[in-house]
Design goal:
rod-shaped; alpha+beta; about 240 residues; 3 helices; five-stranded mixed sheet; 60s Ribosomal Protein L30, Chain: A
Length: about 240
């Protein structure tokens, strides 16, 4: 009886153990599945993180490249502005030197006979027409030859220098005068001076031209009279110099 009970108890223990083993095996299988699932999730997340990291690195590189490009453009613009400023200073210096040479050439003539000024690109030497012509005539006055000699010398010394001879007639005419006659008279006088420079003083025809101007006399230089002769010098190389 006792042995039967002991055997039955042992069988129950074995059954319980087998049941426990079965549960453990089931739990182990479930844990293995969970581990594989977690491993797969970990691989996915790792891959996702690597993709995001690579994207961020690429965007950061793009930003850095963009900043370097903008910095390069800025440096190039600064260099360009610096070069422009230096070139402008050189042009200004060259124009001032040219203007000084022109004005010095005519410095011996008294202030009551002439007036000088500069624009952004021109050097203007203005004389009373009486310095060049006898009254109401095309014949030369005493100073015309010396002025033309100096003018020709300037043009031959400076290959880039160009000249416009402008004879100005006052537009405020008397009742007996006609505008077309005044302009024609100015044109004739301008052409006389042009021919003398070319024929007598051997000035290149490409360096000089003549023009007749019909306008009201400039009141700033009233001492020169109503009718004037302007020698307008301009460099063929220098641009307009803004002061």
């Amino acid at each position: 009886m006792v042995m039967m009970m002991a055997c039955k108890s042992q069988q129950q223990a074995i059954s319980t153990l087998e049941l426990r083993i079965g549960q453990l095996r089931s739990d182990s299988t479930a844990m293995e599945r969970r581990i594989r699932q977690l491993s797969d999730e970990n691989s996915y997340l790792s891959e996702k993180c690597a993709t995001v990291e690579q994207s961020l690195i690429y965007r950061l590189q793009e930003k850095e490249d963009s900043l370097r490009m903008k910095e390069q453009v800025l440096n190039e613009r600064e260099q360009s502005l610096s070069d422009m400023k230096a070139r402008k200073e050189q042009e200004q210096e060259a124009f001032d030197k040219l203007a000084s040479a022109v004005m010095n050439e005519f410095s011996e003539y008294a202030p009551q006979l002439k007036s000088t000024r500069t624009t952004c690109s021109q050097i203007v030497v203005e004389f009373s027409d009486k310095v060049f012509f006898q009254q109401q005539s095309l014949k030369a006055d005493s100073l015309r030859e010396s002025i033309l000699v100096r003018t020709a010398r300037l043009l031959k010394r400076n290959d880039d220098l160009r000249l416009i001879i402008s004879v100005v007639s006052d537009s405020l005419l008397t009742a007996k005068e006609k505008p077309e006659d005044a302009w024609m008279w100015s044109a004739m006088r301008a052409n006389v001076l042009l021919r003398e420079l070319i024929r007598t003083h051997q000035v290149n025809t490409q360096y000089v031209q003549a023009s007749a101007v019909y306008q009201q006399a400039d009141k700033r230089n009233a001492h020169l009279g109503k009718n004037r002769v302007m020698l307008v010098f301009q460099s063929a190389l220098l641009p307009c110099i803004q002061r």
